[in-house]
Amino acid sequence: MAAPSATSRRGNLMQKLASPSAKSKGKIRRRGRLFQEVILKQIRLLVLFALAIFVIAIFKVGLPGALQPTLRLITPTIGFNLSESQVDIKMNELYDAIEFKDLDGGAWKQGWNVQYTGNEWDKHKLRVFVVPHSHNDPGWLRTVEEYYQERSRRILSTIVQALKKDKERKFIWEEMSYLERWWRDASEAEKRDFLTLVKNGQLEIVGGGWVMNDEANSHYYAIIEQITEGNLWLKDTVGVVPRNAWAIDPFGHSPTMAYLLRRMGFDNMLIQRTHYEVKKILAQKQNLEFIWRQSWDNFNTTDIFCHMMPFYSYDIPHTCGPEPAICCQFDFWRLPGFGSALRCPWRYDPQQITIENVQERSETLLDQYRKKATLYKTNTLLVPLGDDFRYITIAEADLQFENYQKIFNYINTHPKLKAEVQFGTLQDYFTAVKDEIDARKGKVKVPSLSGDFFTYADRVQDYWSGYYVSRPFYKSVDRILEETLRAADVLSSLSLAYCQAMGQGHFPLSISEKLTAARRTLALFQHHDGITGTAKNHVVVDYARKMHSALLDLQEFMAKGVGVLLGRDGSQGMCRDADLDIFIPEKEQRSHDVLPVRRLADVVSDHVQRLVIYNPLEEEVKQVVMVLVERTDVCVLGADWEPIVSQVSPEWGNTREMATGKHRLHWQVQVPPLGLQTFFISTSEASHSCKAAEVAQIEVFHATDSFSCPSPYKCTHTAEKVEIQSQHITLAFSVQDGLLQGWKNQRTSMEASLQEDIAFYSSRGSGAYLFKPLGEASSMVSPGGLIIVTKGSLMQEVLSHPKSIWSPSPASRRARVYNGVDTVQGYIAEMVYHVELLDNVYNDKELIVRFKTDLDTGNTFFTDLNGFQTVSRETREKIPLQGNYYPMPSLAFLQEPKGRRFSIHSRQALGVASLKSGALEVMLDRRLTRDDDRGLGQGVLDNRPMDVTFHLLLEGNISSLPRIAASTPRVPSLLSHLVLSQLSYPMHTFFAKAENVTDAHRSRLQKTFAPLAMKFPCDLHIVSMKVAKPLDDLSSRATKKASYALTLQRRGWDHSYCRRGQMQCSRFSDKPISLSDVFGELQISTSVLSSLNLLHDASKDIGQVEPSGRKQGGGFRESKGLISMAPMEIQSMKLDLSLDKESLSLQAG
Ligand SMILES: [Zn+2]
User: Fold this and answer.
1) Residue pair 516/1031 in contact by the 8 Å Cβ criterion
2) Which residues contact 55 (CB under 8 A, 6 or more apart)?
3) Which residues cross the membrane (predicted)?
4) 115 phi, psi to nearest 5 deg
5) Is the per-residue pLDDT at 1033 higher than 50?
6) What is the pLDDT of residue 1018?
């Protein structure tokens, strides 16, 4: 039976005769920073001294009442403003140096004619590690289950069988999603063999994440979850802790991965898909191996050794050396007549290795190895040997292993060849290369590097920036699943602690399997063909169905968790599943491919609707919220039955037919951190204390005959200007088309012109991966569109149905301001774009929104990486438009040299560019008929109706500090962090099911749940809080204590954009806080610091250094309960939370 031939994501690089590239760029200048360094050293010394005094004082005096370990968070005063790390290579500067001429390098088309003299290995022979691998996408052209059944299952069995035959054979495996699946099907003997092979070093698990995640669109929360899920399974089942990461297929690489891997205890990482010009310039100086350092890391604690592969692809033609026509001949699966349909496209076929040809074949292959070795500093060489879904049959595996072994035997027994070649794992390679570096005592200088590897181009003008946006609907579902999983995890932790205090751990445990399933679904979607939107239609549907079902489970669980924490009526016994059918989520997820629908609050004349709002954030949230109601004579009551000011306004539909007949009820809430707050919605007749909702005013522009003013609202058609305002900001819009024109901050009188436009690119070469526009974008808006302005005291909105070259218009836009008291929301403009690129008239169109401001920003702008950090971007003329697009997982901003800053916070991943000074554009959706020749074999025509939500913020620099150096990393302000965190982690509303809320009933109800005893500082974020190992740990310890995992991040933020007193919050550096104090009645009985994947308890494994040592500043330090955490750091810890019954009864009372 012929094995299915693997389809690779590669095109055909046409091979031409050699023409060596002439240009060799000079070494990256290391600017004179001597003075700066001296100053820094002084500051470091001072900080160390102060810390030492503090620590000594604590040791002497002791911790107050520290009978049990107390987690205290103290802070070193470093990082007041983050400064830039010192490195040999900065990617920004490297980009300045590259000419992007795509010179023809000959046989190595994107490089040069590589030469060697032959005496390079006289002293130290060349050591080659050939690393067999098989790249298994968990979904791409087939669904993950289809791939598993057809290929991966057989591949894993083949690997075990093939390695058993010969101890010399090695293999590496990456994806735990497949291994876990195989483990369920494998025989006991197969599993035993697998474990033996891992133990004896023949088989290495690399990365060990659930998938090999995308690095552009993925959020750091999801990356941590996906790697941790894979790593925990691996440790529990195989007993292995991975040390080397392997990312050969993600389309561009992010330093966030380097940081997270370092803090997970990884020693080394490997990357492949970087711009071909970047590969070339690094190779010219033998800088393809480097220490990847975070740009904000002044203490070198984030350093991780990184190997970048030099050539076009990870397949066999592009891994043995620079000449694919030769390397392909050593892919023995392409031997004609052996069942594979795959052939070498460079004319020459592989040949079986025989006694007759072994010398010639060995020397030919060794020539490639030697050429490749000249691109690296050491005599140790890595040669991956594999491709997509390879080693599917034992015949295929034997073909590769046996032929290679013959070559190895020949080379290794001919000393004059001065080489030693063997199969190896990634660990074998990295150990050897580091041993060599050590042995050559300082003669091999591995450069340090900071920055990222976006935007990836694999050939000519083919930039992979389309996938930042492809299938944006599912990118938004991804974030909804993330925030819902995080919220459910927090609720499950709290419910478990409370239920266990009552001796009833059953409820939270009963859902642990569903939590795990949801986590694995989120993990799966982080795959580089999942969240990227680069899979076939039916595979996208498969991911979407899984996410939909996970969302339903999580919502149902949360509704029950609310029941646990508030109880039915304050009585005991609330941890039994059957008793928890009290609440339903306000948002209904009807199907995998539509936006969630809001349920109506059930308000009839004699019925009061109870609802509970859950705040999953660590900060108290004050916010104007909304539910849909069927009538306008409604009112809102607080937990203690006091009336609350509210506003009703019509709900406008997304089509021009307008009012849906439902009404939006807005009011302001205040919900405790990680807590719950109850509200009641009633009618004026049902409760006398009620204060009727204010009815909004409506202004309409350019209405057609079909527009009718919904009752009981009054619609005016006479207004002359379109303007909405809150107490902080005023937004002005064009009367012609309803698009935003200006922004004014009331209190500071700061203004900005802000010309919004909705425009589109036409393309002929764009596909799921590539963005290849024909010229610049054209505006789709013309004057005369319908504009509806809703004005009330709590919320004001401008809905614009712009007139466009298409009818109906593919996009409408709602701009809102909120006018709550003391809210973060009050400072932002909420922009919601409803996009429907559903019709074929939009074929090969890519829709954007553009903000042209009067900020003088030149060609510089800022984007985030994985929601974790921000980087500065330069728009470069030498790179085509599509190469100047960058990932925007959550944030982009413009900043004047010393003044205004304009930020776009996004709820989902998209692509962004700043093509002109002061302008920022974000792509909203793309509809493409063509395949872009990267193996997918289709366009992107499965667009869904969707909403893209941005929160815009205009801030002024209030810094009285001396001018901050240009190289200072720009980070969000504290306000910007809070805006993003409220946008990304929204509150969840739950309706009580039909019940009769009588006075007596009401007084028995528990209405508030507030687990934290004190506030978190504003710059400290709970990344996640969960039951660490729900499946194994708890079933055996059901009634005992559970182990929780808490992950915190100390945000890095820009002090020059923070107005003291603007927000009611303290900062981490203001005063130390104790987690025990924060959690109040939830006692932290034990605590252990941990790596981010929860596998290492020792801090030395994850790059964190004792402050008493020479380095300081990275991560946490734990000593007698004292912990410090530097800005930007993320830290996990394992805790036991417990609650005594006494405080429980107090709570109920
Ligand atoms: Zn892949």
Assistant:
1) yes
2) 1107, 1119, 1122
3) 43-63
4) -125, 155
5) no
6) 85
Whether 942 is catalytic is no
Contact 69, 1127 (CB under 8 A): no
- Joined tokens for residue 42: 């002084």
Whether 1043 contacts 1028, CB under 8 Å: yes
On the 0-12 / 13-18 / 19+ scale of CB atoms within 10 A, 1082 is buried
Work out the percent of the chain whose per-residue pLDDT is above 70.
84
Are the beta carbons of 811 and 803 closer than 8 angstroms? no
At CA 665, angle to CA 660 and CA 670, rounded to 5?
150
Q: What was the pLDDT predicted at 113?
A: 97
CA of 326 to the centre of ligand 1 (A): 24
Residue 749's contacts (CB-CB under 8 Å, 6 or more residues apart) are: none
Residues linked to residue 730 through DSSP beta bridges, in sequence order = 725, 744
Q: Which residues surround the ion ligand 1 when the cut-off is CB under 5 Å?
A: 137, 249
The pTM score is 0.92
In tens, the pLDDT along 60-76 reads: 333 322 223 344 444 44
CB 934 within 8 A of CB 10: yes
Q: What does the DSSP 8-state code read for residue 579?
A: G
If you write DSSP's letter for every residue of 1081-1132 in order, what string do you get?
TSEEEEEEEE-TTS----GGGGT---TTSS---SSEEEETTEEEE-TT-EEE
Please report which helix (H) or strand (E) contains residue 499, including its range. helix 472-501
d(CA 188, CA 193): 9
CA of 136 to the centre of ligand 1 (A): 7
Return the pLDDT at 1069: 64
Bond into 880 cis (ω within 30): no
CA neighbor of 330 nearest in space, from 128, 166, 161, 175: 128
Q: Quickly state the pLDDT bin for 979 (edges 50, 70, 90).
A: very high
CA distance from start to end of the chain: 72
Beta bridge mates, 467: none
Contact present, 241 and 201 (Cβ < 8 Å): no
Instruction: Write the secondary structure of 86-151 as one string of H (helix), E (strand) and C (coil).
Output: CCCEEHHHHHHHCCCCCCCCCCCCCCCCCCCCCCCCCCCCEEEEEEEEEECCCCCCCCHHHHHHHH
Of 475, 599, 470, 491, the residue nearest 547 (C-alpha): 475
CA 144 to centroid of ligand 1, rounded, Å: 12
- Establish how many alpha carbons lie within 13 A of residue 122's alpha carbon, considering only the half-sphere containing its beta carbon: 5
Beta carbons of 587 and 595 less than 8 angstroms apart: no
Task: Give pLDDT tens digits for 845-858.
Answer: 999 999 999 999 99
CB 684 within 8 A of CB 633: yes
Report the DSSP beta bridge partners of residue 304. Answer: 292
Report CA(595)–ligand 1 centroid distance (Å).
Answer: 29
Per-residue pLDDT, 61: 31
Q: What is the pLDDT of residue 1024?
A: 97
Residue range 250-290, pLDDT digits in tens:
999 999 999 999 999 999 999 999 999 999 999 999 999 99
How far CA 1058 is from CA of 823, 871, 958, 1053, in Å, comes to: 15, 20, 7, 9
The CA distance from 717 to 50, in Å, is 67
Question: Greater confidence, 26 or 718?
Answer: 718
Rounded CA separation 409/1060 (Å): 71
> Does position 14 have pLDDT exceeding 60, yes or no?
no
Checking if the pLDDT of 163 tops 90, the result is: yes
Q: Which of 88, 137, 214, 249 is catalytic?
A: 249
Burial of 347 (0-12, 13-18, 19+ CB in 10 A): exposed
Ligand 1 centroid from CA 1003, angstroms: 58
